[in-house]
Amino acid sequence: MSWPFSVHNAIYHKERFIWAPVRIIHETDKAILIDNGRKSWIPKSRIYRIRLKGNTFEIYVKESVVR
Predict the structure, then answer these.
(1) Region 4-19: what's the mean pLDDT?
(2) Whole-angstrom Cα distance, residue 21 to residue 2?
(3) Are 63 and 51 in contact (CB under 8 A)?
C-alpha cells in the first residue's frame, strides 16, 4: 500500500519533468536564454527535448529548472 505523504516519498522524492512553454531569445554552444516570465539561462545538458506546439516552443526539463 502506498501512502501519499510517507517517509519514503520525502527521502526518495522523484523530480517531475514538465513541458514548459518558453520564448527562446538567444542560443550559445552550451546554453539557451529563455523567457518564461523572467529571463534565465538554461544549460543545454538540462534540456531533454524541444518541440514546437502551435507557435510556441516548449522544452522538456525538470520542474526545478524553470522555476
Answers:
(1) 78
(2) 33
(3) no
- Quick one: which of 18, 23, 17 has its CA closest to 36? 23
HEC per residue, 47-64:
CCEEEEECCEEEEEEEHH
**What is the C-alpha separation between 30 and 59, in angstroms, rounded?**
15
| Rounded Cα–Cα distance for residues 30 and 56 (Å) | 22
Q: How many CB atoms lie within 10 A of CB 20?
A: 19
Q: What is the pTM of this model?
A: 0.78
pLDDT above 70 covers a percentage of the chain that reads: 88
Quickly count: other Cβ atoms within 10 Å of residue 66's Cβ: 18
